[in-house]
Amino acid sequence: MGFKKKLAGSSMVRYLAQHTPLMHGMAKKLVPATTAEEVIEVTATLVEMGYHVCLHHLGKPSKDAQDIQDNVSNVIETMEMLDEERMEVCVSLMPSEMGYLKSAKSGETHCRQIAKNFRNRVAVRDVEDRQGYGDGHEEGERNLLMVHASERVPMQRILALYGTLHRSDVKACVTIPAALARSEEDVKTIISQGGNVRLSMHPVGVVDARYFDDPELILDNYMKLARLLLSEDALIQQVTPVFALEDDDMAEQIMMMANLEGWSSANFEFEIPFGVNNKLKRKLRDEGFTVRVLVPFGKEWWNYFQRRTQG
C-alpha cells in the first residue's frame, strides 16, 4: 500500500477531514447529508425532479457493539422518517456495519431487525392501498431493502443473508459485483428463484477467492451478466434488475439490450450515485427510464469521499 493511500485511510486524517468545515463542504458534492433529517430533504428534492432514491448509510464498519447499534438505529430511524413522509422506502444495508465483522450470527440478527421494521412498514401501506384509505403507495413506487456487497465480508455470507430475507417475503435486492468470478453462477441462481439483483462493477473490499483485476474483463463480465438479467428467463421470473453504472456507453448498451429482448422501461432500473454524471441521469429520466439516485449519508463519509475522488 502506497504512502498516500495509507495516509488517506488513517484514523487521524479521517477524523480531521470529517470535522473540518471546508472539507465537509467539498464532500457535499458527493455526500449531501450527514443526518437523517438532511437526507430526507435531499430525497424530497430528487423525487420532485422525477428520480427514485436509494439511501446508502455511511457508518463505521466495526466489531464494537455500540458502533453496530448506532448503525442499526440510524438505518431504522431513516426508514421511519421516509415512511412518515410517505416516501418510497429504499435503504441499503452494509453487512460490515451491521455486525458481520463481529460474527455471522450478530450480523444476521441485526439485519433481521432492520428487515422486520422494513417489512412491517411496507405491509401497512399495502393494506392502505387495498382498503382505499390513507396515502398508500405512490405510482411507480418500489420499496426495497438493498443488500450491498460489503468490505471484509465473504460473498457467500452476503448471499445467505439475501436468501434469508427473500424467503421471508422481504422486498430485497442483492448487489452482485461483476468483478467477482463467481457472479455468473450467482446471477443464474437468483434469476431461477425470481429474486432481484443490483449489478455493479466493483466490490469494495469483498472477500472472495477469485476476482478480475483487468477493467476490460470486468466490463465484459458486467455486460454478460446484464444479458442474463435481461433474458427471457429473467422476464418470466419477474426479475427487476438494477443496473448500477456511471458511464454513457454502458447505459446505451443496456438500453439496446433491453429493447432487443422486449423489456419495457418500467421493468428495470438504472442507478447512478449522487453528484455523478447528472447529464446521464437527466437523459435517462427524460427518455422514460427509472433512474435511482444512490444517496450516501452519514457521519463516516470520509472513506467513501476519498474512494470516489481518487478512483
Alpha-beta content class: alpha/beta
How would you write the strand order of the largest sheet? 1-8-7-6-5-4-3-2
Fraction in helix: 40-55%
The value of Rg in angstroms is: 19 Å
Oligomer: single chain
Average pLDDT: 87
CATH class category: Alpha Beta
Rough shape?
globular
Number of strands: 8
- How many distinct domains? 1
Biggest β-sheet description:
8 strands, parallel
CATH architecture: Alpha-Beta Barrel
Number of helices: 13
Task: Give me some keywords for this one.
globular; TIM Barrel; 311 residues; 13 helices; 8-stranded parallel sheet; 8 strands; alpha/beta
How would you portray this structure in words?
This protein has 311 residues and is α/β, with parallel strands linked by helices. The protein has a single domain, classed as TIM Barrel. The chain has 13 helices and 8 strands. It has helices spanning 3-9, 11-18, 21-27, 36-48, 65-84, 104-131, 155-167, 183-192, 215-229, 232-236, 248-260, 278-286, 302-310, and strands spanning 52-57, 90-93, 144-147, 172-177, 197-200, 242-244, 269-273, 290-297. Helix 12 (278-286) links the parallel strand 7 (269-273) and strand 8. Residues 1-9 have low confidence and may be disordered.
